[in-house]
Amino acid sequence: MQRFAFRRLPRCASLKTQTVQVRHIQYHANGSKLPPLVFTFDIDGVLLRGPHTIPAARRALDMLNGANPMGVKIPFILLTNGGGTHEEARRHKLSSQLGVEIHSNQIIQAHTILKSVVHKYAEKPVLVLGGRNDVVRKVAESYGFKHAYTTLDVLAWKPEAWPFHDLTPEERASTKAVDFSRIPISAIFVFHDPRNWSLDIQIALDVIRSRGIIGGPYIDTPEPEKPIELVFCNPDLLWKSDFPQPRLGQGAFRLAFQAVHEALVGAPYPYVQYGKPTTATYKFAEKVLRDRLEELAGGRVEEMPRVYMVGDNPESDIAGANGAGWPSILVKTGVYEEARGPPTHTPTYIAEDVEEAVRWAIDREMKQK
After folding, report:
1. Average pLDDT, the chain
2. Which alpha helices (DSSP H) does 41-134 contain, by range?
3. Percent of the chain topping pLDDT 70
4. Any residues with CB less than 8 A from the CB of 199 and at least 6 apart, and which?
5. In the prediction, which pLDDT does 2 show?
6. What's the CA gap between 117 and 99, in Å, rounded?
7. What residues pair up with 350 in beta bridges, in sequence order?
8. CA-based, 20 to 30 A from 366: which of 196, 216, 228, 298?
9. Is 319 helix (H, G, I), strand (E, B) or coil?
10. Class of domain 112-273
11. Residue range(s) of every CATH 3.40.50.1000 domain in the chain
12. InterPro entries given for it (predicted)?
């Protein structure tokens, strides 16, 4: 590793014009170099609003692609509490929307972390919730879960399990023929926001209270010896779409499920929580970043560049980054609304949009001695 003397280059409008010293740039045997900072971006409310690209996003990504005073490409990953599709499908869509090539190993969705626990349940039947039809089942299978089932499968097996929803032809076509009286469910994974809360709450309760056999007798004990593991991948109570007001997220579904469970059994059910701002998700993201940097460098990265988190949600993006020791930048293009008062978790910086966020972070790093 060696110091890199910065030479004067044309600046982005918001960067100061004095000559400064770049903190350090790592050089590697293959001639590649890594800048002193990398980025982790939320997607919804930062780069996109609903299906629409936020204009500042493309300008920000141009800077990361080399149009910056350092004259180097700045690596980044996308860390979202969204999901419901495979990372490869998501990267194709994002590449088209953002106008830059996104690789699947740059995307961490809420459920991507489940790849790290699949070995526990690869051969066991699991219930997967969320998304449309059997899309999350296919995602689960691609991760290595060999026996994944949906609540639509249950409804196709016994319509009386929830008689308030009739399967559409498309839903029925997505189901597997299964006799759940012979299938002991070992875990429930809420991959993505459920589309039918009432159906999913009912079937999840059936699994938990009958110790895995849907339709079996309920066994309600305070601390079961072998509880059904319940995993939520996204704690967000709210998320920002192109609707004028934020929408309820998977965190709201979790609260609804726990309220019903407590009303029936007398206590909430123990669960595992992934997604921002959990420590597990940020550690997973840091590993993905390191792997990405070593791929680009063609060798081991001895010292991680500083990681900047850019997000729109103080409760997830900012809280998680602060907990991980990353500088955090809150943008005003998503969930956070300045008119409602200061954010619940204090960011390192508040920016109008992601373009300003990237410029500020680059300027800050260039001032480091």
Report:
1. 90
2. 55-64, 87-98, 118-121
3. 90
4. 151, 155, 162, 164, 165
5. 32
6. 33
7. 330
8. 298
9. helix
10. alpha beta
11. 26-110+278-366, 112-273
12. CDP-alcohol_PTase-I, HAD-like_sf, HAD-SF_hydro_IIA, HAD-SF_hydro_IIA_CECR5, HAD_sf
Q: Quote the crossing angle between the two packed helices 55-64 and 87-98, to the nearest 10°.
A: 100
Average pLDDT on 113-131 reads 97
Identify residue 322 by its one-letter amino acid code. Answer: N
Write out the H or E segment, with its range, that includes residue 324: helix 319-324
By mean pLDDT, which of 88-102, 220-234, 261-275 is the weakest? Answer: 220-234
Please name the residue that has the structure tokens 């299906």. Answer: 51
Q: Which of 131-135, 236-240, 296-300 has the highest mean pLDDT?
A: 131-135
Mean pLDDT of 344-361: 98
Count of residues making up the chain = 369
Tokens representing residue 181 in the block: 């009286």
pLDDT at 4 over 70: no
In the chain the first and final C-alpha atoms are separated, in Å, by 15
CATH code of the region 26-110+278-366:
3.40.50.1000
What are the residues whose beta carbons fall under 8 Å from the beta carbon of 346, sequence distance 6 or more? 318, 322
User: How far is Cα 127 from Cα 228, in angstroms, rounded to an integer?
Assistant: 10
Tell me the pLDDT band of 298, cut-offs 50, 70 and 90: confident
The three-point CA angle 217-166-181 to 5° equals: 25
DSSP code for 317: I
Burial status of residue 160 (CB atoms within 10 A of its CB: 0-12, 13-18, 19 or more): exposed
93, two tokens: 């869509």
Mean pLDDT over 219-229 rounds to 81
With the C-alpha atoms ordered 320, 322, 324, 327, is the resulting torsion angle positive or negative? positive
d(CA 239, CA 252): 11
Nearest to 152 by CA among 180, 112, 122, 183: 180
Angle between helices 354-366 and 55-64 (to 10 degrees): 30
Q: Is the peptide bond before 277 cis (omega within 30 degrees of 0)?
A: yes
How confident is the model at residue 360, as a pLDDT?
98
